[in-house]
Amino acid sequence: MNSDPVNPSRNVVSTESAGGDEFAQGLSCLLDGELDGAECRALVERLGHDEHACRQWVLLNCVGDAMRSADVASFHSHGFVARVSEALQREPTVLAPAALPRRPSVRRWLLPGAGAAVAAAVLIGVGLPSRQSLSPETTVARAPAAPTPTAVVAPAAVIDRSPRLERYLAAHRELAEPTLMPHSTPYVRTSGAMLLQEGR
Amino acid sequence: MQFVRLLGWRWITSAIVLLAFVSAAQSQARSATAGGDAADARSPEQWLQIVQQAARRLDYSGTMVYQQGSEVRMSKIVHVFDGQVSHERLQPMDGRPREFIRRADEVKCLIPEARRVVIERKTRAESFPGLAAATTAELLQHYTVRTVDRERVGGFDCQVLEIKPRQGDRYGYRLWVDRASGLLLRSQTLNERGEVLEQMAFADVRVGGVDREQLKPSWPTEGWKVDEVAHRPVDLREQGWRLSPPSGFKPLYAVRRPMAAGQALQAVYSDGLASLSVFIEPAAESSASEALPQRGPINAYARRLGDSVVTVVGEIPAETAQAVANGAERIGR
What is the C-alpha separation between B306 and B313, in angstroms, rounded? Predict the structure, then answer.
């Protein structure tokens, strides 16, 4: 693991010959919105023509999503990664997150092990039994040396969903009482969503 | 339900008309005897009371269509009133298979792929007989209700009710009520510009003659794991909190409950039409004050307040959600 996860080296981005680990660090900084314009451009440029880099980028995103929510993670599958990689290569310009708001940095503890460790964490994350209650360390400890494929969750209809909002809505519907419609109508509204208790 | 999304709401509406056409003759026969003149004499308040009663006391079954933005979902619903309490079974027809079976204040959520039943039970600090007619008068302090048109919906002769908020802190509604049975057949939630934020409608409905067998779960649940969501009633003041929902929103519940990140306080308020929940949780390091993404009429706002996060979620405008969150106060214990 990174010996200094809080302050990963920044100058790796411009080095074309940078090792995979350093490159992964750069990606992490990119995701966390910590790079300046020039650094961003350099990374995005490399993502535009480097297939391996693209896959790494997508995996990192999967890991982040998996850490934040098993529901979001369930959208990801092996096919998803491949498709997104393809799409990324066709349209490298979509990768300009310079203006992204700062997100909780769930990735850095993973870096720069990258490669198999990241893939293992993704596989674990997809089937993550509980969300925030599981600490990153626990996940790493449970990562198998040779990840085995897990059952791919059938992708739900992809619409604009915030897993966080879904959780609150699930809790809200338990106690909200419609007066004019049948009592179960709040469940109609959230029926496509998870149950709050799912996965606990 | 992908096909529904592809075909769109227009198609659904046609389907609704077709589906319900069968029951049209039956409905007309009923309205000739039960509806008619008596229905004409009803005041808007009486209409609201009749709708409330009908939702609780009638036996009915049908398919409910929910639309929000480009999203359409259908659910089968069965409702039976046994003279004491009501029973309901709701089967969402899209997404992962689920079933919600309600008896009075207890809902069993069936998750077949996990072979689990999750029981959600409402535990009131003290029992009171639901939101009865009393709130209709209170409701009118915050909304104006008018009977507007008579329209045929799905073959039923419906009275259209227009409900407008007196102030901009909540949404308006448009309701289509079966003049014969009093059952709400279609409901729209509207913003201040009259745009439909959300719509629920019966695609087909049958009033009366519901077979009790329809209330039973679709899957044998023997051997399934049963979990219960533990809600413990709490006194918010004793917990050191004072909340200020908009006027007319009365407290329904205040509980300590499990949430994804641990224990939380949840307080639920309703003005008779809209409801909102306030969640109070320990803050994470990254917690900030921010609005959550809007979904139809649902708005949510999270506010960081010291070492806590106060999140307001409900069928209320964004400004109201934020105002309620900002109105939350820590008080001395």
Answer: 20
| Residue of A133, A174, A181 lying closest to B184 (CB–CB) | A181
Torsion angles phi and psi, residue A127, rounded to 5:
-100, 20
| CB-based burial label for B328 (10 Å; 0-12, 13-18, 19+) | buried
Of B248, B249, B266, nearest to B257 (Cα)? B266
Q: Do A162 and B292 make contact, defined as CB atoms within 8 angstroms?
A: yes
Min mean pLDDT across A46-55, A118-127, B74-83, B189-198 is at A118-127
CA nearest neighbour of B239 among B256, B263, B258: B256
Torsion angle, alpha carbons of A138, A141, A145, A147, to 10: -10
Return the top range by mean pLDDT from A70-74, A131-135, B134-138, B285-289. B285-289
Please give the ipTM for the structure prediction. Answer: 0.81
Please tell me the distance from the alpha carbon of residue B145 to that of residue B139, in angstroms, as a whole number: 9
Per the CB < 8 Å rule, is B90 touching A187? yes
**What rounded mean pLDDT belongs to chain B?**
85
* CB contact residues (below 8 A), chain B span 195-224, against chain A: 198, 200
> In whole angstroms, what is the distance from residue B92 CA to residue A76 CA?
24
- Residue A62 · residue A110 · CB < 8 Å: no
pLDDT bucket at B330, cuts 50 / 70 / 90: very high
- Residue numbers in A near B109 (CB within 8 A): 195, 197
A133 inside 8 A of chain B by CB = yes
Which of chain A's residues have a Cβ under 8 Å away from the Cβ of B313? 165, 168-169, 172
Of the candidates A177, A184, A200, the beta carbon closest to that of B77 is on A184
In tens, the pLDDT along B36-59 reads: 567 888 998 899 989 988 988 999
Identify the helix (H) or strand (E) that includes residue B278: strand B275-282
Closest CA of chain B from A173, distance in Å? 9
Distance of CA B99 to CAs A191, B50, B109, Å? 9, 28, 6
Whether B241 and B57 have beta carbons less than 8 Å apart is answered as no
Q: What is the mean pLDDT of each run of 10 residues along chain A (200 residues)?
A: 41 40 71 71 79 72 52 49 55 40 43 42 35 33 37 38 83 81 72 45
